[in-house]
Design goal:
By secondary structure, this protein is α+β, with helices and mostly antiparallel strands. It is built from five helices and ten strands, in the order αααββββββββαββα. Bound molecules: copper (II) ion and zinc ion.
Length: 245
């Protein structure tokens, strides 16, 4: 596999003129970086393509994350469990996510809890070994691809659908193998006025986490009808309450 990857990269670079240095390469001088980026991206897409999607998955990628309380969490903290599900059509569809979490305090007056994608899928020291926010483009929080914002729990649960997200399952910036962390505190969305705010939103302790892995469509299809129904009900209710008498 490594040999294959090496050969693929060499092929990609030689096609872009980097390891050739001949006349033809000069014609790409306008945008050599763009050219390389596109070729490397295509290579990655081709490498990841067979393991994630197929005709059976209708050219759609699915991923799951089985949330468990951090192994070093104090017993008096909320023990959050559940599932985060992802769906994205190949190759350029927007990522959709379903959050289905349980174990928050039943009567919480908290304004919200932060959820992010973190860089590493390493949970060997609980959620603390997952490192910082996944930040491939070296930007400030809250502009990381996995800055999902704040979530309110209701009856101890968070059940939420989000579409049109920045993160992706495909290509060189795939989130597969990275982790999701559920925090104790609210995300200040970069407005905290200190360094940590621009790195992690001062979201506090890591309550629970999981590693994102490839899955089939079953869990998504099982959860989607309920989520869609709830959204419809909420939109109808909002419409009722905002309509003038
Ligand atoms: Cu986080
Ligand atoms: Zn962030």
């Amino acid at each position: 596999m490594l040999l294959f990857l090496y050969l693929a990269i060499i092929l990609g670079l030689s096609a872009s003129g980097i390891v050739r240095g001949d006349e033809e390469a000069d014609s790409h001088r306008d945008s050599p970086l763009q050219d390389i980026r596109k070729k490397v991206n295509d290579l990655w897409q081709n490498l990841l393509y067979p393991q994630l999607i197929s005709k059976e998955t209708e050219w759609t990628g699915y991923a799951t994350c089985e949330v468990k309380p951090s192994s070093n969490l104090d017993a008096n903290k909320p023990q959050v469990t559940g599932q985060v599900l992802f769906r994205q059509s190949y190759p350029n569809g927007k990522l959709e996510v379903i959050f289905d979490l349980d174990g928050f305090p039943l009567h919480s007056n908290q304004s919200g809890r932060a959820i992010h994608i973190h860089e590493l899928g390493d949970l060997s020291k609980g959620c603390d070994s997952a490192a910082g926010h996944y930040n491939p483009f070296k930007v400030n929080h809250p502009h990381h691809p996995g800055d999902f914002g704040n979530f309110l729990s209701k009856g101890g649960k968070i059940r939420k659908y989000k579409g049109n997200l920045l993160a992706t399952l495909f290509g060189p910036y795939s989130i597969i193998g990275r982790s999701i962390v559920i925090h104790e505190q609210e995300d200040d969305m970069g407005k905290g006025g200190n360094k940590a705010s621009l790195e992690n939103g001062n979201a506090g302790r890591r309550l629970a986490c999981c590693v994102i892995g490839i899955c089939n469509k079953n869990s998504w299809e099982k959860n989607l009808p309920d989520i869609t129904e709830r959204r419809k009900r909420r939109i109808t209710n909002e419409h009722k309450t905002t309509r003038p008498n």
